[in-house]
Amino acid sequence: MHNDRKLVENRITRELNERVFPLVHTDRRSFVIEAGPDLDHLEPFEVRSSWGAPWATTWFRFSAEIPDEWARARVEAVIDLGFHPDAAGFQCEGLLVDVRDDGSFTPLQGIHPRRTNYAVKAAPGPVQLHLEAASNPTFLGFQPSRFGLLATAGDRPLYRFRRADLVLVDSEAEALAYDMEVLDGVMRALAIDDPRRARLLRTLADALDRIPDVAAARRVVAPAMAEDFGDAVRHRSVAIGHAHIDTAWLWPMRETVRKCTRTFASAVALMDDYPEYKFCASSAQHYTWIEEHHPELFAKIAERVDRGQWVPVGGMWVEADMNLPSGESLVRQIVFGQRYFEERFGRRCTEVWIPDVFGYPAGLPQVFALGGMDRFVTQKLSWNRENRFPHSTFWWEGLDGTRVLTHFPPVDTYNAEITPKEFAFSITNFQDHGWSTDSLMPFGHGDGGGGPTREMVERARRLAHIDARATLEIDAPAAMFDRIERDIERGAQTPVWRGELYFEMHRGTLTSQIETKLGNRRCERLLVEAELWAATLGRDADVDHLWKQVLTQQFHDILPGSSIAWVHADAETVFAEVGAELEARISDLLAEVAGSGVSIANRADVPVDEVVVLDTALAPGLAGEHVQTLADGRSAALVSVPAFGVALLEPRSVTDRVVLSDTSMTNGHLAVRWDAAGNITSIIDLVHARELLPNGEYAAVLELAVDHPVEYDAWDLESWTRSGGVPLTGLDGVEVEIVDDGPIVGRVRVRRTFGPSTSIVTYQLRAGSPQLEVHIELDWHHDEHLLSMAFPVDVRASTATCDVQFGVVERPTHPSSPWDAAKFEVCAHRFVDLAEPDFGVAILNNGRYGHGLFDGAVRVSLARAANYPDPNADRGHHEVTLAILPHGAGLAEVRDAAARLNAPLRVVDSGTGDAVATPVVTVTGADGANAPGVEVDAVKLADDGSGDLIVRLHEAVGNRTRIALASVGRITDAWRCNLLEEAETGEEVGDAVVTLTLRPFQIVTLRLRRSATDDGRIR
Ligand SMILES: [Zn+2]
């Protein structure tokens, strides 16, 4: 025998498929099929018929007779709805149900592309099955599709029914097929020159020679299956069943409810057959749906949680995007998630589980740990385009120094199938063998693929001890983390990664579907505001249900803008409804908070003592000489109002006035010049005596670039996209007009038509203000383009400071190393700052996230126009305000300005309170002055109904600072809490004031007990 390895391997592949697996089903009976829109309208239906309009539901009834000779044998139904063989999920799916007399039903098990079988446990005689099938369209190949909206999807059937049979199963033949498949995979994962590889090749060929004698073939493979590699220290792969179900994506959320039902029912069914099988699932929202729609399935899940077979993980409301939600939203993801898991299952989660999220900001470790989770699982960075992350297990250290034990499953997927190839890859791909012996393998088809299958669990059994380097066992992620922690306690040298886990892909998700992002930004701020004003009145805001709706929309394919049109339409409807309800509540609350007369309310954590533009025309009595009525009817005036406070509207006289000429605008701080095409040619900071613009450059320049991602259109922005951008600075199609000429506010409007789109950019300078605001209105109709606004600044800085949740991070302003070059588009929430030690220039925004920092400028990504998966994404009307703010040393002034830009004052003209209410909480420096750089995230009454006041705050700019905190009710006791408002340590209270020191970027949640006033109220 000469070297025939390749030939025999090909023989094994073919004969396994054509001669071994066909031995498993020894007999079959076809079902008689009926189908219809519901169970009362079924009609005869033939195999190979078409069915299923896009997004529709079809009911099937399958009837057959189990013959007497099948008694006590294994009988299964095999149903193929016409599945695309190439994808595990993302297409049609079915749910087998037990129909009750009243027409309601209990889920039994899902039928999916890779899980087409169902064990029929019935005696000989008639058998009937009922299946609810969803004809979800597929979205393959990054092509624009009409299926993304019901209105454009049409009604042509999408699928051709392939098969519905009862089959008789030969368990021995099935076991042989699994044995041989696993041995074949193990063989192929070995090196060509590994002696074992040659031995396995002969074993498998010998077994094939025995076919169809199943027993004889099993005897041939038995010794190879039982090979024992002894007790030497080996790597341990912890496999955990999982089904990554996106809360919405290429299907609307209503379908996710059903995807969860099918997948969860299948997971429970598999547990009955395999006692060692365990399954983990995240997202309290998903459990909530099952609880509401299928309480009996939920009860089964709860029972399996008790048994330890079903493992809730993640501790969050959904697997949210991490870049875009506010810090307080991230907190509430955990608060509402952990509360849910505790209330329903009596336990909190110990691991954060967000394997598919597009980057992880540096503030997260602290948030996770304060939420009771100091372990973190993701694998998304294995998708990095440019740089390979150097660890699989490591301490991730956040902004404030908090560390969480982090694991990237080395199988590089959350949808593993436990093949020998994956097992071998996960061993060689694990990067920390030097100090650790454990890794995780989440297995199961996601997104409607049905989760783990029997084949996967069978393979897990066979792979348990078959490799000389590693064992495999099914267990909970916590078991793996427990062992790693024990290794660390014994002194294992664990690597540390400090700072954000930047994802080198999907950078377009910082900008795509901008209106979805703005809806979220508006609602998360309104929620916090409603809590503030309610707390001011000593009340609970009663907004938990609204929080949950917003948190659900923060899911990692909704907020990033990577879903079909239907999902974004739904999201924007939710945000509009939640926003309207919150506005109404805030209006009612403020009517009580404010006294009679016209007042202004400041929800920000910084006082206002400056010229503001109020979103309303003032009554003639108020619009005196200290008020300027703007061309658009709004009013500008110099006013004062404390942080979290309300004040009577009493415009004061302005001393520093705005003076305009045809081409310039000046106040005591800034001198701004523009040319005939409306381009800003100069901005001089008069206080620091600096020109902000590099020689010959313009500020606030629109740049238009062709935007053709290589793959994932809505997700990706390419490194070369921006460099192909064309500045829109010409005279053609431009109108420049001074719309307001001071003395309190000056405004210049530049209207520009470019191709199918129009921009109206308004430069605004307020009396006494050190910043120039740039308001942008867009009528955006380009196709596959990126529109940015560039702010070149004459500041020499090798990093830019970006505002993120619970602090700031530095990003490179140059592509000097591969890791720096990858950060060509980064997330910033409210500002980006370029600074020299004594002077800096910040670019503020009230509604954008994507920023480019290279080439001596800050570029704000304003709009994209992707064609996949939503072919009309982002076309239409958009508005945003940016600002350019020069400043001296430090960031506190920038943070304060950004806070004000994002919290415009409200005018309350219908106050009913006796007097203007005092701010419910005041935070100052220990010396009584303003507390620079301290941000207050939430002021609310405690969730436990105690009436205690909860104040969450953090140090936002990197200082160590001492603050004093007082409340309108006298503080008698104070505790430092975790995010779930549970007291952990007492704080000293001196003369009703709590004084504490914040470390750089430290988050503190305080619980304050206050004495009631004479009328029994705390206000
Ligand atoms: Zn996902």
Describe this structure in words.
The protein is an alpha+beta fold and 1019 residues long. The protein is 24% helix and 31% strand. It contains 18 helices and 57 strands. The strands form 12 sheets. A 9-stranded antiparallel sheet has the order 35-36-37-38-47-44-43-40-41, covered by helices on one side. The radius of gyration is 32 Å and the shape is elongated. The model has no long low-confidence stretch (mean pLDDT 96). Zinc ion binds at residues 244, 246, 356, 556.
With helices defined by DSSP (H or I, 4 residues minimum), what is the helix count? 18
Helix content: 10-25%
The total count of strands amounts to 57
Q: What's the end-to-end separation, in Å?
A: 93 Å
Most strands sheet = 9 strands, antiparallel
Which cofactor or ligand species appear? Answer: zinc ion
Q: What topology, given as strand order, has the largest sheet?
A: 35-36-37-38-47-44-43-40-41
**Mean pLDDT over the residues:** 96
Give the helix/strand class. Answer: alpha+beta
Percent of residues in beta strands: 25-35%
Uncertain regions spanning at least 5 consecutive residues: none
Brief write-up:
With 1019 residues, the chain is an alpha+beta fold. Strand 45 and strand 46 (857-863) form a beta hairpin. It is elongated.
Keywords:
1019 residues, single chain, alpha+beta, binds zinc ion, 31% strand, elongated
